[in-house]
Design a protein that fits this description.
This protein has two domains: about 180 residues, Rossmann fold; about 170 residues, Rossmann fold (3-Layer(aba) Sandwich). About 45% of the residues lie in helices and about 15% in strands. The protein has 17 helices and twelve strands. One of its GO terms (biological process) is glycolipid biosynthetic process.
Length: about 375
């Protein structure tokens, strides 16, 4: 008997959508359902996709007003018109995927409206589910033909309700993250692996994410003078940043660890007393799962700023805009256990465990053979 399939539609505009897709795909495989993953826009319009990804990266790295204008400008536009316009994107490629793989359901980790458009035109009746990967909701995610929404928080659910989405079509599932972040770690082994001292507090700087952290070298030069702390900087694939920090690593071998791209980032989260990062939805969820006090540095206007505001307003993070503010927040967290514990408690309240399982369980319970109408 042929394995059932599920189609996951995503996009490469930021790593969060891709990471959530990977987690959902792995969960499907564990249920003996074959995941078919498609970067629908990239496969349909590769040149445009590459250009717009580059434009987005530049807007992040230069703090350009472009992304602010796009996010908040389109937020004020008629979302129905925007959705209607974008519903044509990738429709041909989607039909190819549907006819080829006959999926039992479709998961969206990026607001793509081709599937809903085809459903509207009665060309297919496959249940389509949207998985929101941030702690805010842009109207562009909304579509009357989405079967069900999986969201991060009650606040996002309330936003959908305010736009007349039925409560029956919304589940507060949390954001899907890798199971390693939900599993207890052997901290002693991790300290030894990274040559860190268990008696000294660890400050982790996540610098190589999609939205590159600003002023990392300046920040490290300020923090390194606190000799009772250990600093770990994760540069990801940012080779120029790694090279610029090499002199600090050479001068302070006992208190400074410089890392490139690593798979086992959850291990460092497990021993971190403070995490300095950009406020992507996935990173925030991973930190909340492991209850790591957060400093969210220079969030870009848009979902970064909205994510950061949600965590800060709920007592789960500090927001900083200058390196001196970061240093002050670090001292507050590491020197005041009561504040650190309050932040951890707030994160525990926000975090929803086993999000991927909640989402896939729901989809499987409603799973039907796809009914596709040819025209």
């Amino acid at each position: 008997m042929k394995r059932p399939t599920a189609l996951i539609l995503t996009a490469k505009y930021g790593s969060g959508h891709v990471q959530a897709t990977s987690v959902l795909a792995n969960n499907l495989r564990e249920r003996n359902i074959e995941p078919i993953v498609s970067d629908l826009f990239g496969e349909s319009y590769p040149a445009i996709s590459t250009f717009t990804q580059s434009l987005l990266m530049k807007s992040f790295s230069t703090h350009s007003s472009f992304y602010k204008w796009f996010y908040y400008g389109t937020n004020k536009l008629n979302s129905n018109g925007l959705v209607q316009f974008s519903s044509y994107f990738g429709r041909k490629r989607l039909l190819e995927l549907v006819f080829m793989h006959q999926p039992s359901f479709i998961l969206l980790t990026f607001p793509l409206h081709a599937a809903s458009s085809l459903k509207k035109k009665s060309r297919m009746s496959i249940p389509t589910y949207t998985v929101v990967t941030d702690y805010c909701l842009h109207p562009y995610w909304m579509n009357p033909f989405i079967h069900h929404y999986f969201v991060s928080t009650e606040a996002v659910k309330s936003c959908l309700l305010s736009h007349q989405v039925s409560e029956k079509r919304i589940t507060v599932s949390g954001i899907p993250i890798r199971s390693q972040f939900e599993t207890p770690a052997d901290k002693q082994v991790i300290y030894e692996k990274f040559h860190l001292c268990p008696q000294r507090k660890v400050i982790t700087i996540l610098a190589g994410a999609f939205g590159v952290l600003k002023n990392v070298k300046e920040l490290c030069e300020l923090l390194i003078h606190f000799r009772t702390y250990q600093i770990v900087v994760i540069c990801g694939k940012n080779d120029s940043l790694f090279s610029s920090l090499m002199p600090i690593a050479f001068l302070f071998p006992e208190s400074f660890r410089l890392l490139g791209y690593i798979e086992d980032i959850h291990e460092l989260f497990a021993i971190s007393h403070c995490l300095i990062t950009k406020p992507g939805g996935i990173t925030l969820t991973e930190a909340a799962a492991m209850q790591v006090p957060l400093i969210l540095h220079s969030p870009i206007p848009g979902q970064e700023l909205e994510n950061a505001a949600f965590f800060a307003e709920n007592g789960a993070a500090f927001i900083s805009h200058t390196t001196l503010e970061v240093v002050n927040h670090v001292q507050t967290i590491l020197q005041n256990e009561e504040i650190s514990n309050r932040m951890k408690s707030a994160q525990k309240y926000i975090y929803k465990r086993d999000s991927a399982s909640v989402i896939i369980d729901h989809a499987i319970n409603e799973m039907k053979q796809p009914a596709i109408k040819l025209v």
